Amino acid sequence: MAKDVKKVVLAYSGGLDTSVILRWLQTTYGCEVVTFTADLGQGEELEPARRKAEMFGVKQIFVDDLRDTFVRDFVFPMFRANTLYEGQYLLGTSIARPLIAQRQIEIAEEVGADAVAHGATGKGNDQVRFELSYYALKPDVTVIAPWREWDLTSRTKLLAFAEEHQIPIAKDKRGEAPFSVDANLLHSSSEGKILEDPALPPDEIVFQRTISPESAPDVATEIAIDFVGGDPVAINGEALGPAALLAKLNELGRANGIGRLDLVENRFVGMKSRGIYETPGGTILLAAHRNMESITLDREAGHLKDSLMPRYAELIYNGFWFSPERRMLQALIDTSQNSVTGRVRLKLYKGNVIVTGRESPHSLYDTRVVTFEEDGGAYDQVDAQGFIKLNALRLRLGAAVGRKGGTP
Amino acid sequence: MAKDVKKVVLAYSGGLDTSVILRWLQTTYGCEVVTFTADLGQGEELEPARRKAEMFGVKQIFVDDLRDTFVRDFVFPMFRANTLYEGQYLLGTSIARPLIAQRQIEIAEEVGADAVAHGATGKGNDQVRFELSYYALKPDVTVIAPWREWDLTSRTKLLAFAEEHQIPIAKDKRGEAPFSVDANLLHSSSEGKILEDPALPPDEIVFQRTISPESAPDVATEIAIDFVGGDPVAINGEALGPAALLAKLNELGRANGIGRLDLVENRFVGMKSRGIYETPGGTILLAAHRNMESITLDREAGHLKDSLMPRYAELIYNGFWFSPERRMLQALIDTSQNSVTGRVRLKLYKGNVIVTGRESPHSLYDTRVVTFEEDGGAYDQVDAQGFIKLNALRLRLGAAVGRKGGTP
Amino acid sequence: MAKDVKKVVLAYSGGLDTSVILRWLQTTYGCEVVTFTADLGQGEELEPARRKAEMFGVKQIFVDDLRDTFVRDFVFPMFRANTLYEGQYLLGTSIARPLIAQRQIEIAEEVGADAVAHGATGKGNDQVRFELSYYALKPDVTVIAPWREWDLTSRTKLLAFAEEHQIPIAKDKRGEAPFSVDANLLHSSSEGKILEDPALPPDEIVFQRTISPESAPDVATEIAIDFVGGDPVAINGEALGPAALLAKLNELGRANGIGRLDLVENRFVGMKSRGIYETPGGTILLAAHRNMESITLDREAGHLKDSLMPRYAELIYNGFWFSPERRMLQALIDTSQNSVTGRVRLKLYKGNVIVTGRESPHSLYDTRVVTFEEDGGAYDQVDAQGFIKLNALRLRLGAAVGRKGGTP
Amino acid sequence: MAKDVKKVVLAYSGGLDTSVILRWLQTTYGCEVVTFTADLGQGEELEPARRKAEMFGVKQIFVDDLRDTFVRDFVFPMFRANTLYEGQYLLGTSIARPLIAQRQIEIAEEVGADAVAHGATGKGNDQVRFELSYYALKPDVTVIAPWREWDLTSRTKLLAFAEEHQIPIAKDKRGEAPFSVDANLLHSSSEGKILEDPALPPDEIVFQRTISPESAPDVATEIAIDFVGGDPVAINGEALGPAALLAKLNELGRANGIGRLDLVENRFVGMKSRGIYETPGGTILLAAHRNMESITLDREAGHLKDSLMPRYAELIYNGFWFSPERRMLQALIDTSQNSVTGRVRLKLYKGNVIVTGRESPHSLYDTRVVTFEEDGGAYDQVDAQGFIKLNALRLRLGAAVGRKGGTP
Q1: What's the number of domains chain D is made of?
Q2: Which of residues 83-142 of C touch D (CB under 8 A)?
Q3: Which of residues 387-406 of D touch B (CB under 8 A)?
């Protein structure tokens, strides 16, 4: 169990659980602990985490604002593919893990640590996402996953350990949370305990980042999003950096009851689980990006992307961001986005994202060709006959030898 | 041009355009015309079509109610795949064409006709869908596509021909319609003319089958849908035949502002076009089916279906329903649906379809395994370490020879 | 370690290693051992295995001839897909494992055993193939994998255990084999030890089932294979059962130096390994089946199969024969084979399999259409213009807005 | 028919057929003809083509050596994907067409021509490949395809036209060739007439570029090929430019009876056709590249490429080299080839290409990990158990609710 470890970089939130882990690492491994706390837009202050770490005698404390990196280098590339896991999930948790792991490994290299540790449990996907990323970036690193190792297997034992080691316990942490939450600039997820029965709807208290469609205003909000090369760059004409832009979309989405998802999904570790996701800005962004592509992307380029999207989503969900196959797919996807530039107008109304217009200097939509009116020779209807005849040829040859209607 | 044709079966709606075609076939080809009018739930009376055909001297007139066939043998199989063309379109027009063509060919065999004719234009997808189906079912059939052949290239010429041949012109058909409409039990589509600019939202008058989310009631409607083997069989506990069930869902969707789509899509014939689709019942059905699958379908079964869905959708959109590859994919899809049985509860509210529960006697969701609580040994967290280690092995070997982070 | 086990069914070859396992199970688990020895055409006598098992006090001994089952229900279905793992490997070992596991589980049910055991090591794919099959067929079974559990980690320790427990050691088993072998009716594989360096060619002594191309006769052997519905049924006009047919092809292949493969492949457990495979009959069968399909299978049916073959091969290689996704793909593949009926003629010559003719009552090859000669109107060359024009339309629209040459 | 054309660039071989086309263009269209003759390694002298063109009064004559461009920018990129159409065809003709078209369009821009013409027939794939490339590069170009337009529908009429227009007819061109040939540095293809019956083997006289396996030497030739970044750069240690390298491989293949293929394939225009292909160097190169990848490419990178290869091959075969989707796939493929560097050794013997060794500074093959011997902790066999258990979990959960053996 207790491998020989000298210095470990811990992904540290400052909360009770990772504080227990911090102390547990110190006592069990007898090693120096370096803490790393990241701002990914989860909406919590980070300074308390620093102070707590100091209190535990941690000498090297890293607190980093990674919000722009997160959105620019992880969220936006993922949205270029219109990525949805199992047709619905915008991968808000999955896409944050590789960045945390990446920075953790950078810190490990910087401070000469031989190990990294995280607070994910042994039943979830996050352990896989963290650890695959660690190993891909630093193959000889020692990984410590306390939840798979220790004997603090109940809340009672955890609290006892905390008390024994002078770890402050907030009053509201005495009892168990009725469900567990993960949050960052892209989304907020809730799962476990009171949410475990998929036959029951979530209680309204579960939602943290959106008001309900019912509570949203009776008047729609109209917005315009500008894209350059597949990524959003401005809202209502105002240029915004990646994190600021996503934050603005979150605000707009929240206010209009947009982005709730109640999902039963399939975990990489083999079981089904149920999650409640709130992705207000991401839901708007997906609709906007799809519509931007609808006039700027070639048909076969789009269909090729669509056919590979499920695989790409699966890779991110399963934790393979830092893999050759994800990089290869990204190269394919990115190649398609050069001309995905222009403006999409949307109406946000009580949970709905309704497109009201798309325009682009690179538009492939050609009114002359498509029109029901006279087109001045832009399209020769006679060509359609040859097109159909040759597309039908193999079906006719098949039918002629008795395989009617495409019977194989 | 005027091939030698003795008897032609015309897909006849009774409207002005197909009435002109009817007469044009008689005069141009000098052949006998058999009319075929199908009820696919488009919501029009068919008897006027019969009377008009009689008026034109047609001797063999077929008027068929194909609604249950349509939903059972075409719509439901398509929904088993959660089919969306280009991520959004529920294929309401595409899925109706092969059935019309199939019945047309059956009639041709029955009455000994050597030709079939349709009223689709030379720029659209429907001509392809009709004709590929014709050829796949009767490879030696002669296909007449008047819109590609005749010189009635303007509204004025068409009306002149109608007048010259005593074809009655309804008053509201004198002027040109501001857009063109197709409808059946699954959807209503509108396109062309005033809808051609994708930068502008559709006018409210375009919508025929749904009220707007804004006009929908302030109180949600709660429903339950039962599935057996992948297909819906009952609403709120009431067993319904295929067509009745879809009609009921349409009613529920309409009343709650559900199922509008404003889309720029890529046609098989090569250009982009813009359509406004209303698929109230189908939108509800898709959400329900996905949720039913979420607890009953194996992960890899679902992912395999998801990865092939874009191809399957493309085949239907392009008109290849009667092809070996569509049949092969259908076999794969159908094989997965055995256990997709149970009940899904939904809340319909102002454009939103919100799942509120799913349950199934065949559920793969196992609370014992997934729970954050003690699971009594249902899942050994230690297994996760080996799982991660072996999944990481190739990434570590790569990183060890200098390919850090999955660099290929 | 030593879980509570009452009765275990061991996949038993009668060789030294599985004999040690047999005894080790008896002594370590103190449980009753049932042996199961299968004839899959590996070319060894099975009666010695029975006698040895008796000697160890085994009361329930199963010795089954599974050759026809193996070829009919596993090998032939796989060949319907022209299956090659990583473009080259005919999966001879992979396809045998699920059948062994299936029979083992049947026996476990029959004799009321609560566990199964196999002799595969902890680094290979076979452990995965066995165990995934076990679990898929009997989810509560206890699996014992001695090579992952015991401390007989060296040859010396293994031999010491054997001596201590009166296990007879054949003289030629005293030293270590220079490489390890697996064999069945489809193939023979060799790997390990002297074969581990992929920079060196295998020594000629490695080959067991084929003579070298150099040693093969200077005169070609001509054969004809008949197919019905995708499976071979006769050689040179003589109808043969599945196993007899494959045995005959093996004989023909061996004599002509056909079917050797020197491969570095990627294991499911994460590392690369090197294997020498001999699949004489399978190599002939693949060539024959492909050629049979070439005149009987629709283009898109074939392309769809081709595009899914790598996934199907991966599933079999990784051990997922008994999985929903393999069954779904099989349904798709099988649907395509109805008309794959006819005769293929081949010439076998010094490692080459050369097709010399294919004919079929269901042939889609139509001389009238393809001919360079006058075709009497079977194909209208003018159709090609429309076909090209519409296929080019999107590329032209792209080029017209500055995306020349298909630049995205 | 005779569109208004001022100046046309003709792909001109100097042979009888394209000479007739040259004159026919001059007389039918009354336009200036510019000839373009390319050396793609077809093995014919080009100066006679120049002289003939002069004889016909052509003022602008282009004769270009494109061999290195062909191999470097078209053949090698294609081989990076291990491309095979329908599992067998190395696409020798298909890959040459886009280059010819590209240069033709460049010349058209250069000389101010408004049209291009080619000598491909209306039944084949080449017309599609030429024209899709033309349109993708110059969307407003006029394309003239004489074989689809003129009335020289028989050999007699063609010869009569030639005589009438003083086109010299070589004696051996009086009669019709018994089959038609296309050749370039990658391959030689033969089809038509005496080759049309797929039930009969080709006569030995058909083969132009290879001796038969039977005629090849009794002693094998051993060679080594070096790769850098996925492309071959040297043979037997001698660095060679792209064209010289392929020419050398052709020589080696020819001498050893390597690279013959007798194929029934599916044309894009809808029918099956039969071709005899000789690709001696390409066959060696494919085997070498695959083996180079086998030790340098990550497993999932390789599987991803394999799964997309059929689509990539189809695009090239169908003529979509200059399309967004081909460029996207190329980006994915190229991204994977960085580390495909090293040496492969092969033995060429009577039609066989047998690998005898592979080595690379970037090898992912790790003897420590794979070995059957003690591995010093490089791989922990216990990890396999967790790996299997979690991979099995969904199958076990399925079986537990009655879906035994992966029944969906």
Answers
A1: 2
A2: 86-88, 102, 121-123, 127-128, 131-132, 135-140
A3: 387, 389-391, 393-394, 397-398, 400-403
A146 and A198 within one domain? no
Catalytic site includes residue B226: no
Residue B45 lies in a domain: yes
Q: Which of C101, C140, C104 is nearest to C5 (CA)?
A: C140
To the question of whether residue B14 is assigned a binding role by annotation, the answer is yes
The count of other CB atoms within 10 Å of the CB of residue D157 is: 13
Neighbours of A4 (CB within 10 A): 10
Q: Would you tell me how many other CB atoms lie within 10 Å of the CB of residue C110? A: 12
- B406 belongs to a structural domain: no
Of B383, B397, B402, the CB nearest to D390: B383
ipTM of the complex: 0.96
CA distances from A65 to A18, A40, A73, A77, A100 (A): 19, 7, 14, 20, 11
Residues B196 and B274 in one domain: yes
Whether A177 and chain B come into contact, CB under 8 Å, resolves to no
- pLDDT tens-place values along chain C, 408 residues long: 457 999 999 999 999 999 999 999 999 999 999 999 999 999 989 999 999 999 999 999 999 999 999 999 999 999 999 999 999 999 999 999 999 999 999 999 999 999 999 999 999 999 999 999 999 999 999 999 999 999 998 888 999 999 999 998 887 777 778 999 999 999 999 999 999 999 999 999 999 999 999 999 999 999 999 999 999 999 999 999 999 999 999 999 999 999 999 999 999 999 999 999 999 999 999 999 999 999 999 999 999 999 999 999 999 999 999 999 999 999 999 999 999 999 999 999 999 999 999 999 999 998 888 776 667 777 889 999 999 999 999 999 999 999 999 999
Identify whether residues D286 and D352 lie together within a single domain. yes
Chain B residues whose beta carbon lies within 8 Å of the beta carbon of residue C298: 323-325
Same domain, C172 and C233: no
Last residue of some domain: D117, D149, D177?
A: D177
Task: Decide if C211 is inside a domain.
Answer: yes
| D212 interfaces chain C, CB cutoff of 8 Å | no
Q: Do A394 and C336 touch (CB under 8 A)?
A: no
Looking at the structure, tell me whether residues C107 and C212 fall in a common domain. no
A32 forms bridges with which residues in the sheet? A7
Same domain, A196 and A155: no
CB contact under 8 A, D325 and A393: no
What is the rounded distance in angstroms from the CA atom of residue A375 to the CA atom of residue D358?
Answer: 61
CATH code for the domain in which residue A20 is found:
3.40.50.620
pLDDT reading at B2 higher than 80: no
Tell me: do B193 and B246 sit in the same domain: yes
Residue B74, in any domain of the structure: no
Is C243 in a helix, a strand, or coil? helix
Give the largest CA-CA distance in chain D.
85
Picking from D177, D211, D246, the residue at the C-terminal end of a domain is D177
pLDDT tens digits along C302-336 = 999 999 999 999 999 999 999 999 999 999 999 99
Note whether D350 contacts C350, CB cutoff 8 Å: yes
Q: Which structural domain range is residue C242 located in? A: 184-359
In the stretch 325-354 of chain B, residues with CB closer than 8 A to chain A read 325-328, 347, 349-352, 354
Q: Rounded to whole angstroms, how far apart are CA atoms A111 and A164?
A: 30
C347/C215 same-domain check: yes
C180 part of the active site:
yes
- Give which of B163, B182, B186 is closest to B173, Cα–Cα: B163
List, by residue number, the catalytic residues of D: 17, 97, 126, 180
